[in-house]
Structures
1.
Amino acid sequence: MTFRKYFVLAGITVFSTAGDSLLARGMKALGHVSPHDLSGLLLAILNPWVAAGIFFLLAFFACYMSALSWADLTYVLPATSLAYVLVALIGHFRLHEEISPTRWLGIALIAAGVGSVAAGPSVTSVPEQRESPEVPRAAVSPEVES
Amino acid sequence: MKDLYAWAAIGLIILASTTGDVLLSYSMKRVGDVGELWKRRGVLAVLGRVLATPTFALGLMAMGVAFYSLLFGLSWGNLSLVVPASASLTFVANAVAARIFLHERVGRRRWIAALLVAGGVVLMAI
C-alpha cells in the first residue's frame, strides 16, 4: 500500500460525505418533488448545492472505481462505511450535536471493523487480466495474507 | 402489507447493490490498476478501457436498480428501517458474494470486520 492508495481510500470517505450532505442541503432548499411532476428533479441540478453534491459524488465514484482496480471488494467496502462516522463526528464537533452512547458504540464497531481489514492485505486474488503488455504481471505486487 | 413492501424493497436493494458491486469490482480488476494506466497512457486510455468493459455497464445498471428500489422502499417504510437494514445486510451479502464470485479469500479477519461494520451501521441509525 502506497501513500497514493491511502489517499484514494480517504477520497472515498470524504467525497461521499460531502456529496451526500450537499445533495441533502440542496434538496431541502428545493422542497418536495411532486411524483406527478418529475421535471422538478431535472431542474434540481440547476441548484448550486445539488450541482456541487453531484460533482462530489462523481469524484467519490472515480475514487471507488480506482480503489476496486487494485484492491478486493471486501477491502474497499468497509472503508465506505467510514462516511457514517465522519458525518457523526462533523455533527458533533462542528455543529455541537449530541452523540448518544449507542451511536458512539456504533462508531467504535465501524472503526474496529475498518481498522482490522485495513491492517490485512488489500488483494487476495489476482484474476486473469486483459492482454496489456505495458503493464507487466510483475507490476501487480502479490500481497500475501498475514 | 406496508411492511411486506418495505422488506421486499430491502431484499431488492441488497440483491441489486451486491450484484452491482461484484460486477464493478470484477470489471475494475480486468481493467487493472488505473493509477498505473493513467501514468502510462493518460486519462483517456483509462476511460476508454473502463467503458469498453461490458460488465461495467451491467454493474451501473444494477446500481441504478438498487437506487430506485431504495426510493421505492423509502416510500413504503421508515428511513430508520430501510437504510440501516439494507446497508448492514449488504455488507454481509457482499462478503459472501465476493468469496463465491470474485474468489477473494475472505478470512476470519474480514468476516469479523463485515459483522462489526454491519452492527455499527445499525447502531448508528437507531
2.
Amino acid sequence: MTRAERERDLRDRLIHAGHLIPLPTRGLATFTSDVEAVVRGVDGLVRTMEPVAGVVEIGVPPFLPEVEFVRTGYLRSFPHLLGSVDVFTGSPRDHRALMADVEAGNPWTERLSPAHLDLLSAPCHSAYPLHQGQSLHTPRVYDIHSRCWRHEPSDDPMRLMSFRMREKVLIGSAEQASAHRESGLGHGPRLLSDLGLPVSRVVANDPFFGRMARLMAEGQRDDELKFEFICDVYGGDDGGVALGSANYHQDHFGGDFDITGPDGGPAHSACIGFGLERIALALFAVHGMDTGRWPTAVRDGLRLGP
Amino acid sequence: MTSETTTIREVLAAHGRLSADAHDIAEDADLYALGLASHATVNVVMALEDELDIEIPDELLVKSTFASIGDIRRALATVDS
C-alpha cells in the first residue's frame, strides 16, 4: 500500500469502529466518546509534563486580532494555511438580499465583512501579545490549550484542518528559552514513548510558502530550531507522523512584539507543543481500535478507568 | 561590479541585522557567522531584487548563495547575464 492508501485505511478503520464520523469537508472530522476520552487523557499528561512550577495556564480564544496575527509573521511565511473570520454587519435590507442569494443558491459570502480576526494556528501565538512592549525581568511560562486551524485539506485522519493543541511556551532570555526547549526534547518524547508509541526525535522545518521556502527551511534546519517527535504510524519508509515538536524561536517573536528579555535584549522564546488528536489517533493505530484491550499501563496513564 | 558590491553592502547594512558594519567586512566574511538569520536573508533578497531591478531565480534562493558578499556578487553576476 502507498502512504495515501494507508492513510485512508486508518480512516476507514476509525469510521468502522465508530470513533470518527466523516464530514463532507476534507480535513474536518467529528470524534466520538473513546477518542475524546483519549484526547482528554493525553491533554492531562501534557498539562502535568515538566515544567509545572511557576507555569501559568491560560484559556484563549481560537483566533487572534488581525494586527497581532500579522505581527506573528504567520502571514509572511504561511499564507497558504491561514483562515479568517467573516461576519454579517448589514441592515435588515442587506439581510433580505443575503437570504435571497442563499435561497437562490447564489454565492452569498461576499455580503459578509471581515471581522479582522484570524484563526489561531498555534496556541503560543496567544502568549506574545500579552507582553507586547514590555520588559520582562523574569521568564514567563504559559501552558495553553486551544483549537487551531491550518488550511491543508487532506484525507489523512492525522492531518486535520481544525484540531486541538496544548503547548508550553517560555518567553525570557536566550539561555532560558534554550533550556526550556532542551527540557522539552527530553520530556516530550518520553511522554509519548511511555504511552507505547514508537517515537524518534528529528530535526525538522516548517512548511514555508513560496519561493523563499527552501531558504527558510534550510536556515531552520541548519540552526536546529525545530525538532519533531515522529511516530511511525503508517509503516514503511514514509510512515512517520509528527505528534509534537520542540521549537526555539530565537528572538523572532520577542522582536515582532517588542518584548525585552531579562538580559536587556529582545526576548527569546521556545515552545513545546503536542497535537492532541494526532496523539490519540496514533494510539488507536498502534494499540488497536478497542481501548479496552490497550495495555494496562497505557490505559492507566490516560486515566481511561477500569 | 563595484557599484553592485556597494549595493550589496548597503542592502546588508539595512536588512541583514549583522553584528558588524556591512560596509567594512571582508568580501569573503561568513555572513551567517555574523548573524545573518533566515528572515533577514529573505528581506535581503527582496531588497536586492528591488534595488537592482532583477528577479533572483528560485534555484539561487538557497543559503549558500548568501554565505558572503563575494558569493552574493558571483550569484548576481549569473542573473545579470
